[in-house]
Amino acid sequence: MTPLTVGRMNSEETALQRSRSRRRFRLSLRALLIGLTIVGAVCGWIGRVIYLRTLQERGAAVMYKQCAVTYEVIDRARTVAWLQRHAGPQVLSSGGSMHGSSGPQGWRREDEMSIHWLDGRRESRAIHLRVEGWLAGYQPAPILIRDQGGSYNEPLIAELVQAYEKKGWEYKIVPADEKEPPPR
């Protein structure tokens, strides 16, 4: 073989290799559509996860605000000034217990309070109620106000209802005689 022939063969081989490599990287319409479908599905899944997380964060924020408003109204009702306004000026002091809990899925506030009068009488269970809220899926469920038979629950429940309606929150009042808790 002469050097000229070898050179031609090399250029022919190089041209053949180039055409083969071009065919390898050639993208068909079918491959393009499959690739786009996979990328679209992954992006859609990521978007859905972000959307659901945002819904849950918004629901939790509203739930915590409900808890704060409830605690504020009930704490205001535990003062002697509030009791004197609703029970009369003869109220000397008040005492009782309060239990509250709050977590990522719900909150609860249970209060039992007694009144001490100037003439020495004591009225136990002047206020006795439980208020709770929780997330139902990604949205806050209606606030449950359970009236447990306190003699001054009515004005306190009226203030809670007024605060909830002002914020546009749903609520449900359960009377003292209903013993079974509602299903969650």
Q: Could you please describe the fold and organization of this structure?
A:
With 184 residues, the protein is of the alpha+beta class. Helix content is 51%, strand content 27%. The protein contains four helices and six strands, in the order αααβββββαβ. Strands 1, 2, 3, 4, 5 and 6 form a six-stranded mixed sheet that branches. A hairpin with a 2-residue loop joins strand 3 and strand 4. Helix 2 runs antiparallel to helix 4. The protein is rod-shaped. The mean pLDDT is 80.
Which key terms come to mind for this protein?
rod-shaped; single chain; 4 helices; alpha+beta; 27% strand; 184 residues
Strand count, sense and barrel status of the largest sheet are: 6 strands, mixed
Uncertain residue segments: none
Structural class comes to: alpha+beta
Quick check: average pLDDT?
Answer: 80
Helices and strands, in N-to-C order? HHHEEEEEHE
As a whole number of angstroms, the C-alpha radius of gyration is 35 Å
The coarse overall form would be: rod-shaped
Q: How many strands appear in the DSSP assignment?
A: 6
Helix count? 4
Q: Whole-Å distance between the termini?
A: 91 Å
Percentage beta strand: 25-35%
Quick take:
This protein is of the alpha+beta class. Helices cover 51% and strands 27% of the residues. Strands 1, 2, 3, 4, 5 and 6 form a 6-stranded mixed β-sheet that branches.
Write the topology of this structure.
Blueprint: H1 3-24, H2 29-77, H3 80-87, E1 91-102, E2 106-117, E3 122-136, E4 139-140, E5 143-147, H4 153-167, E6 171-174
Parallel strand pairs: 5-6
Antiparallel strand pairs: 1-2, 2-3, 3-4, 3-5
